[in-house]
Design brief:
By secondary structure, the chain is α/β, with parallel strands linked by helices. 39% of the residues lie in helices and 19% in strands. The strands form two sheets. The protein has a six-stranded parallel β-sheet with strand order 2-1-3-4-5-6, sandwiched between helices. The radius of gyration is 19 Å and the shape is globular.
């Protein structure tokens, strides 16, 4: 029986904890008789997700004891004054590198010369019927990314905008929680996903969850969104909102098509299968 431990020092409020540790742990327990835990227990393989400073010595220690060390890096902090040296030390210790996107894999290779295995984020929320027709607009994400909305303030006039954010409460916004996300996605017709330069390495997990819930997505261009171009709007946001308003009869069918694609490629079970293939 292979024993696997994921190490992630955040908690469920952090998306990376849920997508890169909690959900894989739950799903891998159903595969190959694996024994899988988070942040404790005996291990043959230790997977460090979103590594922090205290993980460097731990990674060296468990490797010296014969464990295989997998390091999962999802954020491009490689040039960060504090985090960068931590990531580079973990890359040096790693037997295998993992990352959720092709863009991030390329960045890791440019810095380290090491190739990374790409394992995407899975979807998180339950399937809902398509309900994309209407003027209820939703943006959700961490509060430091609220600035992404500012350039589009005028384009959003005439829409009923809801914002879900955290971890700190924000006036006029729903505070992030699993329950509030389910509520907001159930009420929304369209989810908007503006992007900004420098974040091309990010995954498409917000898009996945919006689609699962039954919402149409209007997103700015982004490498992780390109595969959805035939099913959702990926382009200029204002034009996308205008298009959605002009062609409401098309929206639910496109959402249903996208839901099928997401299920085939990003289900927790599908993603766990990729982890299992890596683990062996």
């Amino acid at each position: 029986m292979t024993k696997i431990v994921f190490i992630h020092r955040g908690g469920p409020i952090m998306a990376s904890y849920r997508y890169r540790a909690e959900i894989p742990t739950q799903e891998l327990r159903k595969v190959n008789g694996y024994q899988v835990e988070i942040n404790g227990g005996e291990a043959d393989i230790v997977i460090f997700s979103k590594p922090m400073s205290e993980d460097v010595e731990l990674a060296k220690s468990v490797k010296a004891q014969g464990c295989r060390v997998i390091v999962d890096i999802g954020d491009d902090h490689l040039a960060h004054q504090i985090v960068g040296p931590i990531y580079k030390a973990m890359i040096d210790v790693a037997d295998t590198l993992v990352t959720p996107t092709k863009e991030m894999a390329e960045r890791l290779y440019r810095v380290s010369g090491k190739s990374a295995v790409i394992i995407p984020d899975p979807y998180e929320y339950p399937l809902g019927p398509p309900h994309a027709v209407g003027k209820n607009l939703l943006w959700f994400g961490r509060e430091q990314n609220l600035k992404d909305l500012k350039p589009w303030k005028n384009a959003l006039m005439g829409w009923d905008l809801t914002i879900v954010t955290g971890p700190s409460p924000r006036e006029g916004c729903l505070h992030w929680s699993h329950e509030n996300m389910l509520f907001a996605l159930g009420q929304a017709n369209i989810v908007i996903l503006p992007t900004r330069a420098g974040h091309e390495y990010k995954s498409c997990n917000r898009l996945l969850n919006a689609v699962r819930a039954g919402c149409f997505v209007v997103a700015s261009p982004h490498p992780a969104y390109e595969e959805f171009r035939t099913m959702l709007w990926v382009g200029q946001l204002k034009t996308g909102l205008q298009w959605a308003m002009a062609f409401p009869d098309d929206l639910n069918g496109l959402v249903a098509q996208a839901q099928g694609y997401v299920e085939a490629n990003y289900s927790p079970a599908k993603v766990a299968g990729q982890w299992a293939q890596l683990i062996g």
